Amino acid sequence: MKKAAFLDRDGVINIDHAYVGRWEDFEFVPGAVDAMRKLHQAGYALVVVTNQSGIARGKYSEADFHRLTEQMRDYLQTQQVELAAVEFCPHLPDGQVAEFRIDCGCRKPAPGMILRAALELELDLAASVMFGDKSSDIEAAQAAGVGRAFLLAKDGRGEPAELPVSLVAERSSSLATAAAVLLG
Ligand SMILES: [Mg+2]
Ligand SMILES: [Zn+2]
């Protein structure tokens, strides 16, 4: 069983410009690529878990998302960063696109994407860690039984958001600083 680093995408890996659907708008958060490389080298399977309601909202298509994901993966490979999986949720209960207008089990704070990756990759969730910038990331991780969670400041700038008392996470400014804490 492998341990995983679950990574939210927007606001953690890349700057959250809201509904990023094109590579031209994909801007890495400073230090994020280096942090992902260190996590990978430390034996964590890197699993991106990302809500992509922009698909249900009609901001960009599922094909656009896959194209962007390929471009992200290709770039990361040149940086010696291997992603084990990219799990995404295209749904939204009140979205514009009928096909994706459902109340699903994968949109965070639901744990569906994490549980799906755990089955596919045979992950040890208790030994795994979540990095997110929203309480919904932490809630999904906690619901799935992920052992540790870091709440980061959006885009690696400023302070992390407030969390409801029912959720537990370590607070850190960015993926880079959180990975440094995790890896000692
Ligand atoms: Mg986010
Ligand atoms: Zn979904």
- What percent strand? 15-25%
CATH architecture verdict: 3-Layer(aba) Sandwich
The termini sit apart by: 22 Å
Structural class: alpha/beta
Spatial shape? globular
**Percent helix:** 25-40%
For the record, what CATH class applies?
A: Alpha Beta
Tell me about the biggest sheet?
A: 6 strands, parallel
Radius of gyration, in angstroms, nearest whole number: 15 Å
Number of helices: 6
If you average the pLDDT, what whole number results? Answer: 97
Bound molecules: magnesium ion, zinc ion
- Order of SSEs: EHEHHEHEHEEH
Count the domains. 1
The total strand number stands at: 6
**Stretches with pLDDT under 50, minimum 5 residues:** none
Which strand order does the major sheet show?
3-2-1-4-5-6
CATH superfamily: HAD superfamily/HAD-like
What is CATH's topology name? Rossmann fold
Structure description:
- With 184 residues, the chain is of the alpha/beta class.
- It has a single domain, classed as 3-Layer(aba) Sandwich (Rossmann fold).
- It is built from six helices and six strands.
- The chain has helices at 32-41, 53-56, 62-78, 112-121, 135-144, 175-183; strands at 4-7, 45-51, 83-89, 129-132, 148-152, 170-172.
- α1 (32-41) links the parallel β1 and β2 (45-51).
- The longest helix has 17 residues, at 62-78.
- The radius of gyration is 15 Å and the shape is globular.
- The chain starts with a strand and ends with a helix.
- Bound molecules: magnesium ion (MG) and zinc ion (ZN).
- The site of zinc ion (ZN) has 5 residues, from loops.
- Magnesium ion (MG) is lined by residues 8, 10-12, 16, 133-134.
